[in-house]
Design goal:
3 domains, single chain, Beta-Lactamase, Heat Shock Protein 90, 5-stranded mixed β-sheet, rod-shaped, alpha+beta, disordered C terminus
């Protein structure tokens, strides 16, 4: 789930779903508003004529007769109501005062209440319709004829121009001979019948035309074309497409921007490191691949800093450690030149040989530590009987242990996966270290704890103070006088032990033994799985 591909793909997929839902909702809202405007525009001319008829009828009887006539013509009940009866909202009142048609859902299922203000009077026309029908279209044509018939012929053109401003579709007076009609349609016009025509209904721009004959004048009122409502005109689709592209671009940018910002931080840290700033740190949180690269970079810079510092410390320590045997060799050579007898020269040569052996041992320790410090030793994991290693070591130390008793205890059949050479080196360094400070006893104990093997090396010496227990694993560490260099060693043995134990996936710590001396406890896993070994190698290279 931390894959960059999955995160980007999943984010864009979610963004597309959200954008699709928003675009659909937006188009629906726009279409709802457009549909409202379309219906108001189509109905405004008709209701203007309905209201205009009331203005010419002053008496209540004439108005009632006009209302009944309109109800028959429209096929729906037409009423005159005041604002209190209608309970108009502020928005509806404002639109009606502006001369607009107001449509609102009626209580009847699927019906719409249409309202229009009668100019100059505190009354409003009200009717309920379910759909635009042919009867209402014919009523509109009859109302236009009635409106024009009340004007002289010379003023009808002018009156029609005035009326066009109230309609949402064209109105024209055309000679009957100019119309492109078939024979049946012409005969119906001659019989003073209204004629409907519909363009190809399969096309998006399908429309309706209404031809209304004007008596014996030879002219025909042409109403239309009345275009059907187009839910998806190219303008709306273009706007929705551009908006969707903008939202997709924004969503993509929001997905890529955090990755770009984190990569920029990594690039800045790399540039700092390249310029020699070893304190460079990439602040890139997260566990995705970029976060892992950032963590690896931080581990690499920390490892480089530690290696450089370790190299400096090693250089200073090695130069200090080599100074003493080299000085003794120089002094011994000078003394050898002054020796006169063969026995005295032989004694000086023996001293020189011991100094050379000590120097050789120091160099061997330094090389061993440096090899482990590189983080790439060749470890051959195999089954090791740890108790056998303990017995082998007891035999090897027989000649140098003196009066100190060395014994081993625990499970003789205990095995673990490890490198026999390095495990032998661990035991050898721990036991020889114990021999330097022990008064009379050194003991190796093998036990088991939660599926892991535990090796304890105890001595009855002066022990190690608690505040020094972490320092003993650092190279060339100096402790208090009770565990001074005079006891022997160079301070690298325990550092080597710590590295080998780390490479075996274990841990080592210093405690107090039951005899009051020091106890070095080594805890090792029984099995070394390859994935764990590789994981420890990466961790070692980062943390060591």
């Amino acid at each position: 789930m931390n894959s960059i591909f999955i995160r980007i793909y999943g984010g864009i997929l979610v963004a597309l779903l959200v954008i699709g839902a928003l675009t659909y909702a937006g188009v629906e809202l726009v279409n709802d508003y457009r549909s409202q405007l379309y219906r108001e525009r189509m109905a405004r001319g008709t209701f203007y004529l309905l209201a205009e008829g009331y203005q010419d009828r002053a008496s209540a009887a004439d108005r009632d007769a006009w209302t009944r006539l309109l109800s028959r013509m429209m096929g729906a009940a037409v009423e005159l109501l005041d604002k209190d009866a209608l309970k108009l909202s502020y928005r509806e009142k404002l639109h009606l005062d502006e001369g607009r048609v107001v449509m609102r859902p009626a209580n009847d299922s699927g019906a719409t209440q249409v309202l229009y203000a009668v100019q100059g009077q505190p009354l409003y026309l009200s009717t309920r319709v379910t759909r635009l029908s042919e009867q209402q279209a014919r009523a509109t044509g009859a109302l236009v004829l009635e409106y024009l018939s009340r004007r002289p012929a010379a003023q009808q053109e002018r009156a029609l121009e005035r009326l066009k401003q109230e309609f949402g579709f064209p109105l024209d007076l055309v000679g009957a001979g100019q119309l492109m009609l078939d024979l049946d349609q012409r005969q119906r016009l001659e019989r003073q019948e209204m004629v409907f025509t519909l363009t190809d209904s399969t096309r998006r721009d399908a429309s309706v035309l209404l031809y209304v004959p004007m008596g014996d004048s030879g002219r025909v009122l042409v109403m239309g074309p009345l275009h059907l409502f187009d839910q998806f005109p190219w303008q709306l689709l273009a706007i929705a497409g551009v908006a969707a592209l903008v939202l997709v671009a924004l969503a993509t940018y929001m997905q890529v921007r955090p990755l770009q910002r984190r990569l920029r931080r990594l690039d800045h840290a790399v540039n700092r490191l390249g310029s020699g700033d070893l304190s460079a740190h990439a602040d890139i949180p997260g566990s995705d691949p970029i976060g892992q690269v950032g963590a690896a970079f931080n581990g690499m810079t920390a490892h480089i800093r530690r290696l450089i510092e370790a190299q400096r410390e090693m250089t200073r320590a090695v130069s200090h450690e080599l100074r003493t045997p080299v000085a003794r060799l120089r002094f011994g050579l000078e003394m050898l030149a002054d020796c006169e007898s063969a026995d005295e020269r032989r004694g000086k040569l023996n001293d020189l040989d011991r100094d050379i052996e000590q120097l050789d041992h120091l160099i061997d320790e330094i090389l061993t530590y440096a090899r482990l410090e590189e983080g790439t030793p060749n470890i051959d994991f195999q089954d090791v009987y740890l108790y056998e290693v303990c017995e082998q070591l007891i035999g090897e130390l027989e000649t140098i242990r003196g009066d100190i008793v060395i014994d081993a205890r625990g499970d003789r059949g205990a095995t673990l996966e490890g490198d026999p050479r390095y495990l032998h080196r661990v035991l050898q360094n721990l036991v020889t270290n114990a021999l330097r400070y022990a008064k009379g006893r050194v003991r190796m104990t093998i036990s088991e704890d939660q599926g892991r093997l535990v090796l304890d090396v105890d001595d009855d010496g002066p022990g190690i103070a608690e505040h020094h227990r972490e320092r003993v694993f650092k190279p060339f560490a100096r402790l208090d006088k009770s565990r001074h260099r005079a006891s022997g060693g160079y301070g690298l043995g325990l550092s080597i032990v710590k590295r080998i134990v780390d490479w075996h996936g274990g841990e080592i710590r210093v405690e107090q033994s039951d005899w009051g001396g020091a106890r070095f406890r080594v805890i090792l896993p029984r099995e070394q799985r390859q994935s764990h070994v590789l994981g420890r190698e990466r961790k070692y290279k980062v943390d060591s």
